[in-house]
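Components:
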Amino acid sequence: MNNKNKNNLNNKEYSFNASRRSNKLNQSSLTCLSSRGKRVIMHSGGGGFSLSKLTSVLKKKTQSDFDRVISGTSKTREKLSYMDEILGLWRLEDLDDTLDDLEETLLSVDFGPKTAGKVLDTIRELVEDGKIKTGEDCKRALKETIVNILVNDGGDPTKMNVSDDEKIPTCVLIIGVNGGGKTTTIGKLSNWYKNAGAKVMMVPGDTFRAAAAEQLQTWADRTGAIMSKSPPNTKPGAVSYKAVDEAIAMGDIDVILADTSGRLHTNLDLMDELVGVKSSIKKREPSMPHEVLLVLDGTTGLNMLNQAREFGQQLGVTGIILTKLDGTARGGAVISVVDEMKIPVKFVGVGETMEDLQVFEPLSFVDALFPEEEAGDA
Ligand SMILES: Nc1nc2c(ncn2[C@@H]2O[C@H](COP(=O)(O)OP(=O)(O)OP(=O)(O)O)[C@@H](O)[C@H]2O)c(=O)[nH]1
Ligand SMILES: [Mg+2]
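Structure:
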């Protein structure tokens, strides 16, 4: 992390991809001032993993935020609690069997085979180096290894890209399969950007579903965003092009949130159409989109890896939003997505209201999966 961009605020670490903007911290929230005098968004958390940091971050997390991730991940945690039994019987002589059992447990909570293998290889090395001597050591190392994947392999999960040019709004394109939570997430993001002082325009780029524009309009009304004007029967690429044109012409729009219709990652025509939407945005303003955020439904398990591969390869995804973590989430799969795709998780969705969006915190997420208190029982 660049020291220049490191700021200590309320004892918490904040980082921001300052690029060419001059930034000034706003003391009360995760924002900073851009050269336009508008506050723009930054993220909290990140940095290397240590248990002391984990403890301090968790203390600061509000209990209700954490409770929702806790309840949503209960199924995964239940399965992972089997690890405590395995580790409770820790004997160096049984290392191979123990590692096999641990690997199976990771696979049962939707880790992909590659990532599960990689995690266990790290554990074996640590045992061989004498750094793991007990079951408790092993659990701690497992958590550290997984957090390191989320923090390091995902690049910096702690920042949102913004436009470098004060005349050009930041454009965020939201993509994903049907029903994953794209439109709802746009509502939540709109609220999040608004709370940071930004003026938001939404783009009704889902021209497929009849009620899509009305659904987006409801979110715009709730969050004080404006909708771009789009003539009826316009194709999604043209809707997006016109919206960018409109936003730039208005001169006071800070953030454009572009909705798209849901599509299966296996539908080549629809994936082509989405590539076309991105190209149309780029055609109007080459620096856009600044973020291409893939919405992954936290209840879908390992299938999200296939989705991330296809959307990632074709669209150049810059971040993941993991939704429905309050449901019966199978969020373990996202660790494999980050491991393989090297894309950071930026937010998690924990409900259906505009406040139910949290900046992703790898430490809290992993701790929700492997509760700390059980380490002592291991
Ligand atoms: N529990 C919960 N429900 C969510 C969350 N995010 C979205 N939903 C719900 O998931 C359903 C689908 O959400 P949408 O936002 O319409 O999903 P979409 O991806 O835009 O759907 P399409 O446009 O049809 O592809 C709605 O009922 C949302 O309320 C979340 O974080 N938690
Ligand atoms: Mg939608």
